[in-house]
C-alpha cells in the first residue's frame, strides 16, 4: 500500500505541479511582471551602491577587483534583458480588455519569461555582497620610464641575450651588469624588466634603485610597494623579516637592484641570498666589477659605450626630423661623435636642440668641443673623478694616470718601463713580480671600467672621455702635461712658463721643427717626446736643467750623436730610445743608476761597449733593432740583468772555431746572467747555441732557432715560445730539450731523430704545452703512439691548438689504445699536406675532445673520412657522434674524401654529412675543392646554428639545398658559392616520382643577410623566394644569367639593400618587372647598386616600375663598362630617389642620357631633385648628351665631388659672366632647362673637381677665381690634347685650398714655369701630385731653378707614362717633405735622382720604380765624385721592377745608408750586378730581398750587395725560386 501511495505522489509531482505552474503563467501574468519590476529596482539600488564605492576607491588610487567588474557587467546584462522584456510590444495583446480576448499563447510565453528573468535578477543581486570592491595595486617599477630602447642597437643585443639566458639558468641566482656612468645600464635593466614581465619569466618582477648613499628603509618600501606589501613595522630591522617572508611566498621572483655603489647587505634589506630561496633571481648594476664580485655575482656583463654608428643613429632618433634639415647633418654628426658614445649625453644633447635654429646647433658644437664646458663636466667629469678617487692606493692612481697620459692605446711594455722608472711598482723586488703587479692593476682598472675590455694583452685601451678627465686631473693635481697630435696640431714646442713646474711632460706624435736650446725642468721626473721626424735635432744642452729626471723616452728621432747634456742625467732609471737612428751612444755608459735601457726597433749596427758599465741594469731591450755586433764582454758584465730582449735581430755571435770574431759577444755569456728570468733570442742555426747552456730559471722566453721562422708570427699571448729547426739530432741538445719540456708554444721543423713526438720529446706528457706546431718531418708516423709506452702520464692535458703540416709519413694522429682525458682542452686542429692520412680522428678521440671548436683539413690527397670507426663506434650502433662546441670547420683540397663519417655501409650515393654526425654549434663551414655529389642528407637539423657557409670548386654539385633542407639553416647569415661549374640551381626544384614539380610549404632563410656568387658557369637562377630577407647580393662572372631578378620574384627582394653584379656576360636586365597592373606599389630598401662589365646589359629595369616598385632609399649607383646601356634610370626612379648620394658612370660608350625619356606633353618640365647628391662621376661616355632628353630642372644642392672627363658630346657647364641667359637668383642652386650647370653656383661648394680642356676653358675664365674655388682640395686637369696647350697657371696661383693635383692624358711640355714669383706666400701648397700619360712632358722643374713654391710641401709624387721625361727634377731641386715616390713607364729616363736631391729626401718612406726601359741607375753621377754619405733616413720600402737596363742603384763609391729599410723587391732587373759600387751599403734592418711584391720567395746573403750579386750570378731574377739563405 505504501508503495502505491509513493508512486501516486510521484505521478502527481510530475503531472499536477507542472500543470499548476503552466496555469499560473496565464492567471498571474500581471503579478509576474510586477515581481520583475520590484526585483530590478532592488538590483539597480545595489548597483548604484557598488558603483559609488568603486568610484571612491578609484579616487584613492585603488584598482577594482575583477569579480566586481564582472558583477557590474552581469547587472547591466540582467537589467537590459528585463527592460527589453518589459518593453516587448506583444504585451499589449497578452492583457484583458473589453473589446478582445487575450492571446493565451503570447500571455503564457511572456509570463514564463518574466519569471525566469526575475530569478536571474535575484541571483545577480545575491552575488553583489562585497566586503571590498577594490585593492591597492602593486606598483610597476618602470611605468614612468621609457622601458623599450627606441633604437635597435646591435651592441646591446648580445648582452641582452646573455642576461636573459643567465636569468633562465636554474643554476644562476645572481647576474651583474657594470659599466661607466651614463653608459645605459639603467636603460638596459629597465628593458630586461619589461621583457621579463611580458614573457612571464617570473611570477613577480621588481626593480629598486639603490644609489650612491642608499637609504635601506626607502629600498624596502620601494620593493614592498611593487609587491603590494604594507609595513606595520617602523624600523629597518623590523621590516626586513616581513619583506623576506613576502618574497619567499613567490615561487619565482626577479629583483633588479640598480645603481649599487657600495656592497649591499641583502639580509639587512630583507632579500633572500645564498640559496635561501631558489626561485629568487637578483640582477644588479654597478660601475665596477669588483663590487659585483663582493656581492657574490659570478655571471657578469660589461656594458660598453656606443660605437660611432650607433651614437649617430641614437642622436638622429632623438633629434626628430633631422632628415628634413640637411644643413644640420654635419654638425649633428660631430655633436653625436663628441658625446663619446654615452647615451645620456647623446639623448640630452639631441633633445635640447629640437626645433632650434642652425646657430644654436653650431653654438652647441662649439661648447661641446671644449672639454671643460659646464654640461660635459657636470655629467661626466664628476662621475669619472669619483671613480678615480675610489681606486685603492696611490700606486693604482698613479698607474691609471700613466695609462691616460701616454697616448690613446699605450703599450703595456712601455707602461711597465715607465712605471719601473717612476717607482710605481716599488712594492716588489723583482721585474717578474713587478710585471705581475702591473697586470693585476690593469685587471682592476678594467673592473672599475676605467679601462676598456680588449682581446689584446699588449696594449691598454681607454675611452676618450675617461682619458680627457684623467689628463685634466693629472695636470691639476700633479702638474703632468700630456699633449699628442697627428703632426698638424703640435707644431710649436709648449711655452716654457707652462713646463717649468711640470713633474711629467708627454709630447707624442708631434710635428716640431725645432726644440728650445734648454728644457726648464727642475721638477721634471718623466719626459717623453715622439716626433718621427728624423730632421729634428736635439740641442746639446737640452737636458742640462733636468737633473732629477728618472724616465726619458725619445721616440722616432735621429740620434746619431747623443747630446752632451745626457751626461748630467745621473738619476735616470729608464731610458727608451725606440725607433731612432742611433750610432754613437757611448754617453749612455755614464748613466750609472740606469735600470732599463730600451732600443726597441731602432736602427744601429753595433752596440756600444760602454753599455757594459751599467752595473744596475735590469732590462736591456734590443728587439727588432737591426743590431749586428755586440762587443765581447758586454752581456756578461750586466750581472743584474733580469730581462734581455734580442728578438728579430741578426746578431753575429762569436763562433768557437772562427778566429776573426774575437771582438764579438758569445752566447756563452748568458751563463753569467744568474738573475735572468725573461729572454728573447733569435739565431739562424742551432749549433750556434752552446749545448750545455741551460735555461732553467727562465719564467718567460721567446726563442727562435732556424731560418724558416718569422718572428712576427709569434703569438704575443703566450710567453713561453720555442720555434725550433735543428740540423742535428734532437737527443744531443740537452739544453733545448729542457726548453721543450717547459714550452707553452712549441714549433718543430725538420727535427731529426723523432718518430713519436710524445715519448721522444717529453716523457711527462707535455703538461704545460698549449700550442704544438709540427712541420716538414719525414719520419713521424703518429703524434702519439700509445703502443710504445704505458706508464707515461696523461699526454697533452692542456693542449689547445695542434697544427700538423707536411708530415709525409704520418698516418694517424694517435695510434693504440687511448689515454683518458688526453686532448681534453684541445680547441683547434689544423692538418695540411699529410698525404698518407686516410682517416684523421677516431670516434674515441672525438668523444675525448669536448672543447674542440676549430677543425681545418687541407691538401691531404688520400683522406677518405675525417672520423673513422674504432671499438667505441662499434658499441654506438645508431648513436650520433657529437661535436658539441665545434665552431668552424674547413675541408679543402681533399680529392679522395667520401664522407665526414659513416658507420653504416651503403650502396646509395653518399652525402658528405649524414645523420650519424652532428654539429649543434657550428658557426662557419667552408668546403673547397671536394669531389662531392651531395653535401647533406635531406631533412636534417644538425646545422641549426650555422651562420656562414662557403662552398667553392665542388664540381659534382648540381644544387646546394633541397627545399626541405632550408628550414635546417635557420641561423644562416652569409652564403658564398663559387666555381661549382655544373650547379644550375642553388635550391633544387622538388619533384615527385613522375617528375612533376611539388609545391612545398614556403620556408625562408629568415636570417640570411649576404649572398655571394662567383664564377658559376651553369647557374641559371640567382634569386629564390627563400632569399626574401637578404640584404646584400654579389654576383660575379655567372655566364648564363640573363636577369638577376625575374618577374616572378618582384615582391621578394624588397629587403635587399646592396646589389653588386660584375662580369656576367649574358645579363640583359637586372630587374625584370611583371606586366601585371594589379600589383600594388611596394617600397624597396635598396641603397646601393654596383654594375660592372655587363656587356649585354640593355636596361637596369625592364620597364618603368612607376606603379610597382618604389626605390626611394637609393643612395649609391655605380655603373661601369656596360657598353650597351643607353640610360640608367627610368623616369619614375629618378624622380623618387631623393636620397641619392653618389652617381658614378664610367666607360658606357652608348649611353645617351642618364634618365630614360618618358612620353609627356612638350611644354611640361620634369623636376629631378637630388638634394643629397654629393658625388657625380662621368667618365668616357662618348655619346652622352645630357641628363634627360626633354625640358627638366635639376637640383643638387649638396654636390661636393664633380668628376667628369671624356664625355665629348656633353656640354655641361655655363657661366653667368659669359652666358646670355638671365642671371639666376642667389638662393637657386643648380637649375637649368638647357642641360647646363651654372659654374658660379656649383664650383664654390666643390671639394673635388675633374675637368677636361673644353670645360676648363670656360670655367677658368671666371673672374675672381680664388673665391670661386676656395673649397677645392683635389683638382684633376685632363685631356688637354690641343697642340701647344699651356698649363693653366692661374690654377696654382689662386686656389690656395688645393692639396692634390692630377694632370693626365695631356700634351703639356711644362707644368711649373719659371715665370711665377718664388716669393708668393699665399700660393697653392700641394701635398700630392700625379702626372699621368703626359707624353710631351720634358720637365717638372727646369735645370738651375729652385723648387717651385707650389711643391715646397709635396709629400706624394706619382709619375706614370711620361715618356719624354729625362729625370724627376734637376739637381737644384730638393724635396724636404716627400714621403712617397713612384715612377712607372718613363722610358726616356736614364737616372732618377741626383745625389743632392737624394740627400734632401729625409722623409721619403716608399720608393717604387717600375717599367722604365732606359733607366740605368737610380742616383745619377755628378761632375765631382761623391765623398760624403748619402742617407735615406726614413726609407722603409724600395721596389725596383722591370728595369731591363738598370745596372746599379748608385755607381759612385759613396756610403749609402738605409737605417730603416725593411722591404726590398728586385724583379726583372736582368743587368743589375750589384746594388752599389764599393760594397758600402748599410741596411741594418733588412733581412731579405723579395722577387715579387706579394710573394714569399726571397734571397739573402748577409748584406744587400752580396745578395744582389748572388741573384745576378745565378740568373734567378726572372725565375720563381724557393726561399733560401
Could you characterize the architecture of this molecule?
The chain is an alpha/beta fold and 1525 residues long. Among the domains are: 134 residues; 149 residues, Rossmann fold (3-Layer(aba) Sandwich); 83 residues; 83 residues, Arc Repressor Mutant, subunit A; 111 residues, Ribonuclease Inhibitor (Leucine-rich repeat, LRR (right-handed beta-alpha superhelix), Alpha-Beta Horseshoe), CATH 3.80.10.10; 125 residues. Helix content is 23%, strand content 19%. Helix 22 links the parallel strand 16 and strand 17.
Keyword list:
1525 residues; alpha/beta; Rossmann fold; 37-stranded parallel beta sheet; five-stranded parallel beta sheet; disordered N terminus
Kindly identify the CATH topology of the domain at 156-304: Rossmann fold
Overall average residue pLDDT: 82
How much is the radius of gyration in Å? 42 Å
- Structural class, please? alpha/beta
- Our count of helices gives 33
